[in-house]
From TrEMBL, chain A:
Keywords annotated in UniProt: Amino-acid biosynthesis, Aromatic amino acid biosynthesis, Lyase, Tryptophan biosynthesis
Family listed: Belongs to the TrpA family.
Keyword Electron transport: no
Record EC number: 4.2.1.20
Catalytic site positions: 51, 62
One Pfam family from the record: Trp_syntA
The protein, known as: Tryptophan synthase alpha chain
HAMAP family, per database record: Trp_synth_alpha
Function: The alpha subunit is responsible for the aldol cleavage of indoleglycerol phosphate to indole and glyceraldehyde 3-phosphate.
Entry's Gene Ontology molecular function annotations: tryptophan synthase activity
Length: 264, 417
């Protein structure tokens, strides 16, 4: 459960010479009843964990693709409670792959922090990512997550000064989420030249694995970034491919990305 | 018996006064009691810390104060009059009514008090670009204006629905050299324009300052905007004492995000004899689902980087706000207002579209002053309150803006369109 399950999954992938790949999918996009199949499909494709987004009306860290997916999910009635209930119906009994929830703060604040964390545990959630909760405000939930041994995955950004990067890395559990663009989620032509230095710095200083996310949409980009860290998180591209029904392309993207370690 | 209860009352009064005489909100983490804070992506945190440092330095620098005062006086046209509304007072037949004439500022509203200060901060931080959000366009115009004045590049995000409703303000901003970007996401209104401005800021934070238009958002914005708008309350305090020899008995101001009201209230917070009233927009009715009364009807939550009262559904999704007045049409409110509501220092109430429309016409007819629809909410409540007060008492209304921008909308509404 929780932290250990993420660590274990990462170690298995790395022992097999693979880079880590975490896809982001929007819970409720396409309906909640397809969630189990989708998670199993991703697990079989070789992902190290699944990042499951909770839709929110005002997602300030997200670009157009994920905003639109969240809009679709909300339009078909998806709520945090419905997602947790759905997960409970299958994840608790199924250990195919670690589940990490990505949610803005307000839906969980509204749900009640204690109740949310307790229900996450019941639903087999292994980690939490909250994009609008910086270090200065994290005591709101950090202690409660600790009690339930759910990994509290911190985000670090290219604007963070070095001492701050190190402090964030030290606190992060499961892995460190390295936001690798200046801006929101969504496909980019390329990452800045300084992204490599940034990832190298994090890699040198982080006691947990470092995964690069935001703006990663191709196997080439995954290779480029993975060379400087432990793997990548891909969101908008995966969301887009699933929305277009191109599941096979999703599988290819994952398998092409994780093979980096073997080629090197 | 009587004596001990008097003593108890006295003790309670003193107890209530202690926190007020030491009112130093927000604390260093940006908290106003249990409200406020900095709930933003890590990407923006360094910029908030930089802004906080730059602001604290500027505040203690006499040169900054001098420069700010120069522009407020020579460019904005301060101080604004505190006008005794004799006709209105006679018509109502209660308290003596005074109007703090923020409508006479350059660009027609209080918004420019904030944008002048923040533009000077932008220059001090060595940034060359400014981004802003706007609802009806008042803050956008005030921002575009100071950007023209100080040679800053300016991008304003505005909801596509608001752009349709406020074509002239879009043209004004463009005339002033700003680029207006249409926001079609979500409901295409102020809330969504704010999301887009935050996203843009995250992508361009190294060379861009975000001039937030109200006393909302992450720390230090609620504090900076309040301090810059406090010129309203400071002037009022001096003017009312000069004119009447005493503090006012009541002050009424409208609350959307709450910048004009917090600027008016803040210098009076410690003066317990002054009743402070914040007026929210009740839209179609406070018990309908079409209003913008975040304090009266909302619940605690986090939006745009701050913990405050919000309009939200049972799942924590932010709901749309409704008001005839675009400037009050926001589903959140500044965290300091939520705090002042919780402590009871400020009383919050709400006025409907219909009541605001009546007040809009009444002030135009009786005093020859066309108020902004936002300010008309304060006028509407003040008229009710003044009627219940004695003729030797005084009441100040913060007339936050002029109503020229609303004339067409009011015409259509009155003609039943």
């Amino acid at each position: 459960m929780g932290k250990e399950r993420i660590e274990q999954s990462f170690q298995e992938k790395q022992a097999a010479g693979q880079k880590l790949f975490i896809p982001y999918i929007m819970a409720g996009d396409g309906g909640l009843d397809i969630l189990e199949d989708r998670i199993n499909f991703l697990a079989k494709s070789g992902v190290a964990a699944v990042e499951l987004g909770i839709p929110f009306s005002d997602p300030i860290a997200d670009g157009p693709t994920i905003q639109a997916a969240g809009g679709r999910a909300l339009a078909n009635g998806t709520s945090l409670k419905a997602v947790l209930d759905q997960l409970q119906s299958f994840v608790a009994a199924n250990t195919a792959v670690p589940i990490i929830l990505m949610t803005y703060l307000n839906p969980i604040y509204n749900y009640g922090i204690e109740k949310f964390v307790a229900d996450c545990e019941k639903s087999g959630v292994d980690g939490i990512i909250i994009p609008d909760l910086p270090m200065e405000e994290e005591e709101l939930i950090a202690g409660v997550l600790q009690e339930h041994s759910i990994a509290f995955i911190r985000l670090v950004a290219m604007t963070s000064p070095k001492e701050r990067m190190i402090e964030i890395a030290k606190r992060s559990e499961g892995f460190l989420y390295a936001v690798s663009v200046m801006g929101t989620t969504g496909a980019r032509q390329s990452h800045g030249a300084n992204v490599q230095d940034y990832l190298d710095t994090l890699k040198e200083n982080s006691p947990v694995p470092v995964l690069a996310g935001f703006g990663v949409s191709s196997i080439e980009q995954a290779h480029e970034l993975s060379a400087h860290c432990d793997g990548v998180i891909v969101g908008s591209r995966i969301v887009e491919l699933f929305d277009q029904g191109q599941d096979e392309e999703v599988r290819k993207l994952i398998q092409g990305s994780i093979e980096v370690g073997v080629r090197r | 018996m009587r004596k001990s209860s008097d003593l108890l009352h006295l003790l309670k009064t003193i107890e209530r006064m202690i926190p007020l005489t030491t009112y130093t909100m927000p604390d260093e983490t940006g908290r106003f009691g249990s409200f406020g804070g900095r709930f933003v992506p890590e990407l923006l945190m360094p910029a908030l810390l930089e802004l906080e440092e730059a602001y604290e330095k500027a505040k203690n620098d006499p040169q900054f104060t001098e420069e700010l005062n120069y522009y407020l006086q020579q460019y904005v046209g301060r101080e604004t009059p505190l006008y005794f509304a004799k006709q209105l007072t006679k018509e109502v037949g209660g308290a003596n009514i005074y109007l703090k004439r923020e409508d006479l500022n350059h660009t027609g509203a209080h918004k420019i008090n904030n944008t002048v200060g923040q533009a000077l901060l932008t220059l001090r931080m060595g940034k060359k670009k400014v981004v802003a959000e706007t609802g009806a366009g008042q803050h956008g115009v005030a921002t575009a204006t100071v950007c023209a004045l100080f040679g800053l590049e300016c991008i304003v995000f505005m909801g596509e629905e608001d752009i349709r409703r406020q074509k002239l303000n879009v043209f004004r901003m463009e005339l002033l050299g700003a680029e207006v970007r249409s926001v079609s996401q979500g409901s295409g209104t102020l809330k969504d324009a704010t999301n887009e401005a935050l996203r843009y800021w995250a992508s361009n934070v190294n060379d861009t300052h975000y001039i937030l238009g109200s006393a909302v958002g992450p720390h230090p914005f609620p504090k900076i905007v309040r301090d810059l708008q406090s010129v309203i309350g400071k002037e009022t305090k001096q003017q009312i004492v000069e004119q009447t020899g005493k503090l006012p008995d009541a002050i009424v101001a409208c609350v959307g995000g709450g910048s004009n009201s917090i600027g008016m209230f803040h210098p009076f917070i410690k003066d317990e004899s002054v009743k402070l009233v914040g007026v929210e927009a009740a839209g179609a009715g406070i018990d309908s689902d079409q209003h913008a009364a975040s304090i009266t009807k909302g619940r605690k939550g986090i939006l745009h980087g701050t913990l405050s009262n919000l309009l939200q559904d049972e799942n924590g999704q932010i709901t749309e706000a409704f008001s005839i007045s675009a400037g009050l049409d926001y589903p959140g409110v500044g965290p300091e207002h939520s705090h002042l509501n919780e402590t009871g220092r400020v009383h919050y109430t709400a006025i409907t579209d219909a009541e605001a429309l009546d007040a809009f016409q009444a002030l135009s007819r009786i005093e020859g002053i066309i108020p902004a629809l936002e300010s008309a909410h304060a006028v509407a409540y003040a008229l009710k309150l003044a009627k219940e007060m004695d003729t030797n008492q005084t009441l100040v209304i913060c007339l936050s803006g002029r109503g020229d921008k609303d004339v067409e909308q009011v015409k259509n509404r009155l003609e039943g369109k």
